[in-house]
Structures are given as structure tokens and as C-alpha cells.
Structures
1.
Amino acid sequence: MSSSKIQELKKNRQLNYKGKKNQLKYGLIFIMIVSFIYLYLFRNNFIYSIIWLLGLFIGFTLQKSRFCFTASFRDPIMVGSTSIFKAVIIAFIISTVGFAIIQYKSLGGNIDTDIMKIPGQIAPVGVHTALGAILFGIGMVIAGGCASGTLMRIGEGFILQLIVLIGFVIGTLLGARHFEFWDKLFISKSPAIYIPHYLGFPLSITIQILVLIILYYIADWYDKNNNMMAM
Amino acid sequence: MIKGDYMKFYQKIIKKPWTYVVGGIILAILNIILFWFSGKTWRITSGFLYWGMGILEKFGLEHSNWYYFNVYGNELTKGKTFFNNEYTILNLAVILGALIAALLASEFKWKKIKSKKQLVFALLGGILMGYGSRLSFGCNIGAYFSAIPSFSLHGWVYAIFMFVGAWIGCKLLFKFLL
């Protein structure tokens, strides 16, 4: 490589570095913008203002920790690494405890309430769950990101993820359009199963946390034997 | 002294990436706080459907004619529209939160699409995820990250089959993209 070319590369690098340094300013401008939106929401809709704040922290955390659910499933298969998967399990252990307390308080200890009235993400389980999950799993690997990863990468400047978002909108519309078909075929025949209805609260929490801990150790063991990066 | 502390904070929290475990712990706590305050857990993809339906309604389609919007509590809550709802707030906030994190660490960069193939896979992947999320009542967040701690069995079934899907996806990726 000629020395002039090296000089040019050095110069480019410095330019990049300068460009990088400047971004802090833009970051602060955006913090101001989101703060104004927060104040506006705070005055008009208190719950929205909290959701807004939490969403900002979620996005911030996703970006800072490169938290990628796609990678948590893909890396064990492709490179044998389970480090993100283990982090997801730790998140599950914490949220299991938190969610249990919220549900218990909201139900006033009476868990035999109608399943529709239990707060949280409770939905019918059946063939449709498996089908949807398989489609989602394929989609997230070939698109290179799941729902949260897509939002996070749009924030980082990936134009590709805007295309994924357009795909998402089209896909959800098609899915909703065909929903009657799937409902009559599978969903309407499938029950929603809330585990504490069968095992009670204390046992459900204990078993779930135990399963998660076992999964953690299996993932850890798998990583030690298969991780290509660590070898 | 104070300036030194500030620099340390800046280097550690803002500039350097966090570990996955720290990320996982914070996300779990944020999801719990969200559930506590709003009564609803973190969800994403229904918000994408709402945006799509909002656009279609601009072209004269009526959502109430759709079977989907009449069952399983999919009806729009009173006082909300397809653009003005908690999903929009949350999804936009996640994008802006990530943007701010990237800018403060000077990591923001417009990254262009590399090839036609990549574009097709991105669009196809998005469509598959969107369609799948309607079948399974949620995405990797609604039917997994928020469903397992809700003690709903479908969260666990979802997890297992998302793994199967990811495995198929990896095979496809090796075959067509790499």
C-alpha cells in the first residue's frame, strides 16, 4: 500500500473519529425532545407518560446490552454460545417473581377467578401456538432480528430493519385477515392454561424457578462444550 | 473530583456496552414496573397491526368488519385509535431510547441495505414474524418474554417451537444467504 493511501486512510479514520465525537450533542438534543414529550404526556395522560418513560429505558437497555432474542436462539445453534440465552433465563427468574406478586395481589389471593380476568399475557395454547412460533422463529433468523431487536436497530440507524417493520405490518395484517380460519381450525378448540389453576401459586412459582435454574445449568454446560468462540 | 466522577459514570454507563446479564435483569425489572403501573405487560406486535389497520382505514376499509377485531379482546379500547394507543407510545419510545443510547455512545450510523437478497429476506422475515404473531397471540415479547412469567402454558410451548423455527431458519440461512 502506498504511503499516500495510508495517509488517506488515517485521515478518514480521524474524520470518522471526529464524526463520532459529535454525536453526544445530538444525543442530548434527543433527550430534550423526549423529555418534552414526557411532560406533555404527563399533563394529558399519566399512564402514557409512565409507559413512555419505561419504553425509553427499555430501548436504552436493549441497545446498551445488545440484547437480542434472535441471537439467544440462533447462537446456540450456529456458534454454540448460550450467553444471551442465559441472560434471558435470569430475566425470566426475576420477572416470574415480580409477575407472581402482581397477579396474586390483583386477584386478592383468589386464583380461581375467570381466566380472562387474570392480568398478564395468558392465551389459548394449542397447535396454533406451535405454528405461530415456528413461523416467528424462521422469520426472526432470516430477517436478523425479532420484534424488539427490529425496533432497537431502527434506533441505531439500520435501514434494513425499516423493511422488516414493513414486513411486520403486512404480516400482522394478513394474519389478522385470516384469523377466522385459524380460530375455527385450532384456536377456538384450545384452552388457555394458567398454571396456578392446576398447581396453586406457591408450587407454580417453585417449579417454574426450578425449571429455569435447571435450564440455566444445561445452557451453561452446553456452552462449555460447544462454544466455538471460547475454544 | 466531581468531574472525575462524572467521567467515570460516562465511561462506564454511557460509553461502554453493558453485559447481557445486566441487560436481562434491567429488562425484567422494567417489564415488572410496566405491568405494575399499567396493568399490562410489555407487548409489541399488536402495535404493528394497529398501524397497518390505521393505514388501511385511511383507504376506506372498516376494521369492525374484520373477524379478528371482534374476538379475544382484540377490540380497540374506548378512546383509543390505531395510532393513539399504548403500543404506539411504547414502540416509539423503544426506538428513541435505542437512538439516544447509540448517540450518547457515538455509535449511531445509517447502515444501508447491502443487497437485493438481504432486502427480500428482511421483508419475508418480517411477514413471517407478523403472521406468526397473530396465530400465537404475540411475538418474542408478548408470547414469550411476558407470557412465561405470566404462568401461561402457551409461553413455554411458544419457546420450544420458536427454537424449532430458529433451527429451520438457520438451515435456510446457510443454504441461501451465506
Note: Chain B touches chain A through 124 residues (CB under 8 Å).
2.
Amino acid sequence: MIPTMPFTSTRQTLQPGFIEMHRQCLGWLSATALWKRELKFFQHLLDDFAQRFAGVEDKKEMDHFQNLILYYQGEVIDELRRKLRDHESRLAKALQRINESGLDYQEAHGTLTTELSAFENQYQELKNNFFGFIETGFHQ
Amino acid sequence: MLPTGLPELHQQTNEWRSDLGLWKQELAFFGRLIDQYGKDLCLRDEVRELNHFRFLLNYYSSDLMNSLAARIGNHEVHLGLLMKELERQDESGYRTEHNALARQVQAFEQEYLCFKNELYGLLEKALNRSKTKMEQA
């Protein structure tokens, strides 16, 4: 949720909104670390199930999951983490020098939150489909 | 029209309900993974760890999830009553209940994160062992 607190240019009034956004940022950083860990495990699982799936359709689906896992783990999440760290360092500078427009920062925070929420939904969809796929392999 | 703040609390409650659904689904999947790979974990410490995970999994998926679902349901009923008789009721009780529930959900989220990290580590040992067996066969 994006904080709705109005921003002004004094350190005292900027802080509560910034603190909430900082907390959200740390939450997202922690979530992205978990996603990376999970994807590493999913890769192991996919490797183990590779021998169980022999059909053409299954192989296609395996390729699909393989591509998504590599893409998310190797590109998307790293890029999101880079953006989060940049966002955090912008916050640190803003708190030191108060030269950041509160509204600009809030807007950037909103954009980043939207991007992360969208990815979170995509990631959840991958997990649901992946779990379903792996479960079909239990019976093969 | 809801007073300021209550729609956000209602939305957060709905998010918890949705999280609960996802956790239940994940826990069921983890249970099947444990059944599938448990046999590849034969060292004493691994078996002990596996039993610990089975215990936690059972506790999370039955007791804890049911208790959280009931609390969330009651919390929504509380909001419904508050909305019906808004002018006569003080919403502070609802807010206190919401904060307590938020703390419980947050605490579980943290615990569940550790649980998953450790479970992945243990299952990876089983997966590596299964891979080695395949390569040797």
C-alpha cells in the first residue's frame, strides 16, 4: 500500500512517510531474497523431474518452466533488487540533505511498488502452475 | 460510507485471507514433497529434522491455519456488526483486534519464511542424493 501522507520540505514532517516507505522497501528486499531462494530449489526439483517426463507436451512444459525460472532468477529479480537498492540510497540521501522532492520520491515509490506487486502476482502464478506440473510427475 | 481507515483494515483482512489460501496450498505441496523425498534422507540427523518438519507442517496446516481462518472470519463479522450499528459503537475494539491479528500474521510470516528456507535446504540434500543414485545406476 502506498502511503498517503502529504510531504513537505522539513525533515520532521518528511520522516514518518519516508520511514513507512523504507519499511516497505526492506519488506520487498526480503521478499525478493526468498523468491531467489525458492527458484533455486525449484531448479533442483525440475532437474530431478526431467527424467520422469518423456512426452512431447511434458517436455514443452518443462522448457517453459525452465525458461521462466532462469529469466526470473537471473534477470528480473536481480533487476528489481537493483531498483530497490537505488531507491533506498535515494532515500538515504534525501534524509541527509533534504534536497529530494517528497512528491517525486513518493511517485517513484508508487511506481516501484506497482512493478513489484505485478511481479509478485506473476511469480505466484508460476508457483501455482509449477506445483501442479510437479504433482503430475509424482504419479509417473 | 466507511470511516477513514476501516476500508484499509478490511482490505488488509482480505489480503490475509488470500495469503492463508496460498499458504495452505503450499503446505499441502510441501507435504507431498516430504512424502516423495523423505525416503532419501536416512542419516539420523536428517530423519530427526524431517520429523520436525512433518510435525510443523501438520501443526501449520491444521491447527494454525484453522485458528487463523477462524480469527479472520470473526474479525470480519465484527466489522460487519460495527458497520450496522456504527453510530452506537466504538471502533477501538475492532482496531485493537486488528492489530493483534496483524501481529500474529506477521509473526507467522517470519516463522514460515525460516521454515521454508530450512525445508528447501533439507529437500535439496535428498534431491542431490537422488541425482547421485541416478548417475550411479
Note: Chain B has a mean pLDDT of 90.
3.
Amino acid sequence: MQSRKPQGGSTSTALAFSVFLVVMTVVSVYIFWAKIWWFPKAITDFGHEIDSQFTRTFVITGIVFVAAQFGLAYAIFKFRDQGQKATYFEGNNTMEIIWTLGTIVLFVGLGLYARNAWAEVHFVGASPGALQVEVTGQQFVWNFRYAGPDGKFGRIKPELVSASTGNPVGLDPTDPASKDDIVSPVIVVPANREVELIIRSQDVTHSFYVRELRLKQDAVPGMEIHMHFTATDPGDYEIACAELCGLGHYRMHSILTVMNEPDFEKWEKDQEAANQ
Amino acid sequence: MVTHEDGGGHGHQHQPPSGFIRKYVFSIDHKVIGIQYLCLALFSVFVGMALSLLMRLHLAWPAAKLPFVTGGQMTPEQYLALMTMHGTIMVFMVLTTAPQSGFGNYFLPIQIGAADMAFPVLNMLSFWTTFVSLVVMLCAFFVPGGAPIGGWTSYPTLSALGEIVGPGQGAGETLWIVGLAIFCGASLMGALNFITTLIDLRTKGMTLGRLPLTCWTWFVTAILGLLAFGVLLAACLLLLFDRIGGTSFFIPGGLVVTDQVITWHKGGSPLLWQHLFWFFGHPEVYIAILPGMGVASHLLSTFSRKPVFGYRAMVAAVCAIGFLGFCVWGHHMFVSGMSPYSAFAFSLLTMTIGVPSAIKTFNWLGTIWGGKIQFTCAMLFALGFVSLFVSGGLSGLFLAQPSLDLYLHDAYFVVAHFHLIMGVAAIFGMFAGLYFWFPKMFGRFLDEGIGKVHFWLTFIGVYAIFMPMHYLGLAGNPRRYSEMTAGPFLIALQPVHKFITIAAFITIAAQLIFLYNFLYSLFAGKEAKEENPWHATTLEWSIPSPPPFDNFGGLEPVVYHGPYEFSVPGAADDFIPQHLAPNLVRKA
């Protein structure tokens, strides 16, 4: 049998392929690099840490991405069929070992490095003085409950839940501790003070997501999940639901307002007064 | 059942069945069944694409009136129903069936020198069970309430409480679960068959070290299927019991849905479903992609006229991916409320699975390096596969870190990641396989000219669709939103959504070019007169196109060479077929 003739258009196809890979790689990386679409500014120290870890990961994967795509582009053009004979080799154990060890160090190292940020948010609980806010997800709203002046969350009962009559979380009026509880459709927190969220759901799984906090936590029926943060920058921030919860998922949102301490105290007082 | 006791060269020919039904419908011929699976996948992929196009149009122009949508303008529940069915159909009916049950069924027996699968009747049964499962699932569109809206992951309690939590969660969701359970049964039968066939029916000389990499990936994929689908089957049954039997495996007590107290359920855990589902769901990713890796390796070697670089390392990497694939499911659950300590363990294991994936990529580059690359359509798709695999794989290194996942989880970054790696890369593997094997299967070539147009539009198109989704994810755009109108930051991202929709429209239109090529070439394509038009080495190229009913005419082929003997020094031709006796290899 005669050896196969070069495929028609071998050089132009090779060139097109290589050029496309290079252009695609450069454009993709540039859009990341230029931060045309990017995270909003973080408002916690933890958030800044996440951003640094993201950058580290981006630099490492970016280098691998560019090297792999450029390598592919180079090989496609360089080794296109021009009637040459292919070189015969079946592999190289030394190279296999080198790149196996190299990627282990790189990837697992990156994973180990990421431990710190995760540990900070999840391995350590909130400090005792933290402001506690209970977050309740339900189709398709968020409700936030503060313990009020007595510092104690009152009893809630599923059978008392009635969003239509203004008791969305089912506060039990017979429990004295529930009398001063504040229930609000938005969450207001003081700046520079730790906040502990107690996240729960009444019906299906939701997810509490604030981009500026760099935090997301599912609200799971039957579970109370704790999460904590200390916001530093006053302002209004969007809360989105990040777990599919039904037809209104896309519109299940609320606002996190971070206030300076005096403003927050005033807000709390106003809420308590409205509660009387 | 086909018997193989007559090895040693003097076999008898098996007669094909006569009659249309036995030959083409309830056939026990693995080749016919393979084509049936491919047809099922082809039908499903066009359905799945149509659903995604409607979704994309709605995302870009939420107020637009759309065809095939009851009422014209799409409601949120219609969007979520399309989304759920798009994911389900694509994952199960396309990505699970075509690469493994389709191509694997057709070519695994031939590549190992067998006359059929080990259990031909079981093989027929698994196809028709799959078919029933597709029909049951599609029925969900036509029941009151419509198709389910819970996504392909179907998390309880949304999936467990019934109609009360949303339209589609009644009869539609029940059909979905039943359909999926049936599919699990079909996949288990298929997996058993593949494993037995590969272990038992390899021909003389076909040692494990001479198996084509395609067969290795089909083998490992079958093992994954056997271990994973059983768990999904159990999960589906438990969920079904919760819905219709009053049990509470996944439903805790004290729930209130729109002011109505759920008193009849207590004690269950929604997280239990997530563990069971992802114990299946993560290996499923590899079920979809491993055969594509096999095809890519096979074609990169064939069309570079070079042996696969590091054959043993490739096999080891496939096995490592298969094994580690079962140890990483928790990375889907970093924000689920699962223990943060186990999250960290899952994270490290997930980073580790990047290592065999990287080895494969290096070895693919090593395979074409120093080669003589022939740009057939099959090769273009194989090269495209490598590029997409790299692009889709690297974003996994972000998502594998729980701290970064806190931000990126359930955002469009994830959508970009899994579409590139599990969707598009796997589909490129299938296209590569189809352009390569079409002449063997049908005796005619797919048109290379039309094929190139198809390749370029698709390759550029998928990058234009999925690369921008990473940027949406960085901006924090959550997934599974039926419109992006609820918050200012989402409205600001609308131009990106429009761009993606336009890219999707063009890319999907390009698939019509493929469909035309497929149908045209089937009946009027260039005839494949040679047995081995690509000058390939594996056994399927030693028999006529299309192969006779019993593949090797009753003879048992003998294998003398490894699968990728290209450009061997001292040989006259630049390929040595596996079945060629050493004394017949022409010297240079």
C-alpha cells in the first residue's frame, strides 16, 4: 500500500487552527486580566483573602492554560503533514514522572493553600459577642429575625406560620421571649462588628448568597447552619438565592444593609418601637 | 447466544436473522444496537438543543414571544421545565448513551476480535429499556403541570413534596423519577455486558497491553456505570417512596409550604439525597468524558501517524480517574451544610484528580509532537477535544477549592465549567468518532468539506458560548434563573447574555449542517471501497465496511501487535495493523 497523500489544505487548516487557539487564548485571558466582568468589591477581610486566593489560582491555571493551548497550537502547525515521516517514539518515563510530580505539587499545593480561608469561615465559630440574626428562607422571600433587647430568640412553631397575616416565621406569642423579637424582610447589620447568621429554611432548599461577603450557604430544611462575618464597609448589598427553589427562584432576593454602629442602634430602636 | 468455542481459525459463519423486525428492531446484533443507541442519542441531542435554544432566547429577551411555548411568552416554570429536561436529556440520553452504548457497542466487540457482545439478548434488552425510559421522561411534558422544574439534580425537598412546591413537581416529577430509575436498570445491564465482553471475549493475542485505548475507556466507564447507577437507582426508589408511599427519607419534619404545615413527613434529610445523587453524579461526569478521551487518544495517534505517547501512563491515568472519580462527590456539596472538615478532604481529592487529567493532556501533546498530522474532520474534532478539555478542566481547579466555591458555587462559572468539559468536549469526542467510523459503519464517508464547515462553526461557537459564562460567574450571576431582571447587577450583565444567545443560535444552526451531512452521506456519500481508508491499525479496519453480521466471518482473528504501531522504523508502510502476522509486515 502506498503511504497516504497529505490531506488537502493541510497548511491552511493547520494555520487556521493554530491562529484560532492563540486568539481564543489571548482574548479569554485578557478579559479575565482586564477585569471587565469581575467580583464586586469585598466588604470583609475574609473576602479580601478569597480574592487573593482567587488571584493565585488564576495565575497558576492561567499559565497552564496558555502553555497548553499555545503548545497545542505550535504542535498543530509545526507537525502538519508536509510529506515528512513521523518520528517513532512510544513515550518517555522520565517525562511522565516529572509532570506527574509537578502537577501533584502544583494542584495539591494550591488546595492546601486554600485551607486557611475555608478554616476561618467554617472551622471556627463566631465569637460570643457576635450579633445573632436568624435567616429563614421560604418560597420566595427571605426573613431575618433579631432576638431583640432580651437577647433571646423566642419559640417558633410551624403551625403558626402565616405569611399572609404577618407572622412569616411562626413566632409563638405565648412565649415571653418571642415578644420582642424583630422580624424584618431585609437584614441590617453594624459595620466592624461580628455577625452570626443562623440559616434555616421552611420549605425547600434555598441558598443565602451575598457577593460582597464572598459567602454562600444553603438553607436546608431541617437544619440550622451557622455562618459568621464582619463587614467593614457600610452600604446596601444584594442578597440572592443561589439554590433552585421553585418557579420564583430568580426573584428571591433581599438587601443586606451595613450601617455604622450608631445608625444601626437607631435602626434597632425604631424596629423595637414598631414592634410594641 | 453466540458461542465462541470454535476458536483456532476454523469457525463457522453465523447467519444473520431474516425479517425486518429481528434484523433492525429487536436485533441482538451489537452493531445494530450500537446504531440504535446512536439514533436515540441523535434524536435526543436535537431535542435537548431545541430546549436550550428556547431557554437562551428567553434569557436574552425575556419579554419575547417564542414558538412552541404555550401562551407565547415563557413563564418561569416553563423555563425551569425546559432547563430540567435539557439537563436530563443531555446527560442521560446523549452523553451516557452515545459514547459508551453507541460507539462502544458497535466497536468494542470488533476491536477485541469478538463476534458479538457476551450477552446479545441482554444487550437488546438494555437498549429497549433505555428507549422506554426516554419515552417515560418525555411524557412529563404532556401531563398536567408539565415537566418537572427541579433541575436534573432534583434536590429534595423541592422534588419530594409534590405539586404544592411548584407546577411540574406533581405527575411530571414522578414520571421523571420513574424514567430515570428505568434508565438506571438499562445502564446496569449494559455495564455488565461491556465488562464481561471485554474480560471474556478478547481474541487470541489481544492482551490487555494490546487493547486500543478506546476499549480501555469503555471498560473503565462500564465499571463506573456498574458501581454508580445502582446507587442512583436506590436513590430514585427512595425518592419515589417519599412521594407516593408516605415515607420520609429526604424530608424533615416541621416544614411549612405557603402557610400549609406538612404534618405527614418527619425525620428525613435532604442532604442524604445529595450524597447519593453525587455519589452517582460525579462518576457520571467521567462516564460521559472517558470514552471521548479514548477516541481522542486513538485518533490523535492514527492521524499523527505516531504511537500514543505513554500508552501505559494513559491506561494508568484512565484507571486513576475512574477510581478517584468515586472519592470526590462531596465537592458538589461544599455549601450544602455538609461537615466543613469533610469538605476539605473532598477538596484535596478533587485537586488530585487533576493530576491524571493533566497526564492525559501532556501525553496527547506528546502524541502529536513530531508527528505527521493529517487534518481529517475526525482529527479536527479530536484536536478540538484536547483544547476544550484543557479549557473546561482548568476551571475545575477553582471550583475544587471550597473557599472559592463559596462565591462561584451555583453561579454561571459552574455552568461554563461543566458544559465545556462534560458536554462539549464529550460531544467533540463523539463527532470525532463519527467522522472516523462512519465509513466502517455505513460503507460511505461523511463529506469532509461540509464536515470542515461544521467543525469550524461548532468549535468557534462553543467557545463563544461558554467562555463568556465564566465572566458571568465572576460577576456572581446565579444559575437557574429564568430571567435576570431581579437585581441591578444582573441587569448590567444582560449584554453578555445576549451575546451568548446569538452565539448559541449560530452554533445550533451549524448542527443542521451536520444533520444534512449525516443524512446525505448515509445515502449518497462517497463510497468507502477500501476496508481501511484511514490506514489505521485496529481490528475493525481488517473487515469489510459495513462489517458482516458476525464481524469476522466466523473466523477468530489473531492479534500480533500493539494498537498504535505507526511509522515503525524498518517497516515499509507507516502503519502495522494489529492482525498482520509478523512475517507479512513489509520491510522498508
Note: Residues 45-78 of chain A form the longest helix (34 residues).
